[in-house]
Design a protein that fits this description.
Elements: E1 2-4, E2 11-16, H1 30-39, E3 44-47, E4 52-53, E5 64-74, E6 80-86, E7 97-98, H2 109-118, E8 122-126, H3 135-140, E9 146-151, H4 152-158, H5 164-172, E10 178-182, E11 198-203, H6 208-216, E12 220-223, E13 228-234, E14 237-245, E15 247-253, E16 258-261, E17 267-273, E18 280-286, E19 292-294, E20 298-299, H7 300-303, E21 308-309
Parallel strand pairs: 2-3, 3-5, 8-9, 9-10
Antiparallel strand pairs: 1-13, 1-21, 2-11, 4-7, 5-6, 6-8, 11-12, 12-19, 13-14, 14-17, 15-16, 15-18, 18-19, 18-20
Length: 311
């Protein structure tokens, strides 16, 4: 019996949940940013300008807008904490508003996180490596539901876009934190910071509330390019089905998991026999160009055989 960790609700939708425009510190006008993502085949986009919540209620056929913003606390020229907040409200119902950048002498990052959660926002810890956060700060902060495992903008600026190690640190502590890949478009890098990181969400319909419902449930994967068609558990083993890749990594804890390589040919799937003590398992698929796709973690109760029956 095969049990998928994806819940197939209706449709796969591609989107970027971290982007900026000229409303804050980006170089693209909002209308152009939205149009460009639509024209590149994106199904949804969140414009997350700094300390400005707006849905940019522009009805462009083919793309759904997710209301969002990025709150930031700055401690020095190199030290900061940024949080992306995504609203589950329909774009047409989200009122635009702005707030001053929090003063670190008056507001803690925990208070900021708590206030965003209290408003019903899905909170993502943004680019912790770029922000120069220490491990104890990431671990000590609670309430965020996801961490940016890949941020294209920060990768293009100073090779600080990956946070895999911090993600695993949180998972090892028992934190049920999801992983997000995104662009964080500012348009000020030598190489483009657009169209390099996104999430693929399985939602019941193409609407903001349905997309954010699926995101909140972890019913998505993150990617720089490779596609993950399915993954789950079958006869005591984790399986994954994907587009052609050169590497597939099963990341687990406390057992050490496994790394598999294709050699001369490409792989479109793989299996990992569970050892029976895994607190979580997640999978990375890496293509011939080094682009990675990440599943979200499956935890111990799912590894016991729970999931979506795929027959």
């Amino acid at each position: 019996m095969k049990h998928s960790f994806f819940e197939y609700r209706g449709m796969w939708l591609k989107g970027n949940v971290h982007s900026h425009t000229t409303v804050s510190d980006g170089v693209c006008e909002p209308a152009r940013q939205i149009r460009d993502y639509r024209d590149r085949g994106y199904d949804f986009l969140a414009v997350t300008d700094h300390n400005i919540m707006d849905s940019f209620q522009q009805e462009l056929e083919g793309i759904c807008l997710i209301p969002g913003w990025e709150r930031d606390i700055t401690y020095s020229k190199t030290k900061c904490v940024h949080l992306v907040g995504l609203s589950g409200r329909p774009a047409g119902e989200q009122k635009a508003f702005s707030m001053e950048r929090p003063d670190p002498s008056e507001v803690t990052v925990q208070q900021l996180t708590d206030s965003m959660r209290a408003d019903g926002q899905f909170v993502v810890l943004a680019h912790p490596v770029f922000s120069r956060m220490e491990a104890e700060e990431i671990s000590g902060l609670t309430g965020y539901q996801a961490i940016e495992v890949f941020n294209m903008g920060c990768e293009r600026i100073c090779h600080a876009g990956r946070a895999d190690v911090y993600w695993d640190m949180l998972l090892r502590e028992g934190r049920r934190v999801l992983g997000i890949a995104c662009d964080d478009t500012h348009g000020k890098t030598q190489k483009s910071d657009r169209f390099g990181g996104w999430i693929s969400v399985n939602a019941r319909e193409k609407s903001g509330p349905a997309i954010m419902e699926a995101v909140g449930d972890g019913n998505f994967y993150s990617t720089m390019g490779p596609e993950i068609y399915d993954w789950g558990i079958e006869d005591g083993a984790i399986y994954v089905c994907c587009s052609p890749v050169k590497e597939i990594h099963f990341v687990t804890y406390p057992p050490r998991g496994a790394a598999h390589y294709a050699g001369e040919n490409m792989m479109t799937g793989d299996r990992y026999e569970l050892k029976g003590a895994e607190a979580y398992v997640r999978v990375e698929c890496v293509d011939a160009f080094g682009n990675t796709a990440w599943t979200n973690p499956a935890f111990a109760e799912a590894l016991g055989g729970e999931g979506t029956d795929r027959g």
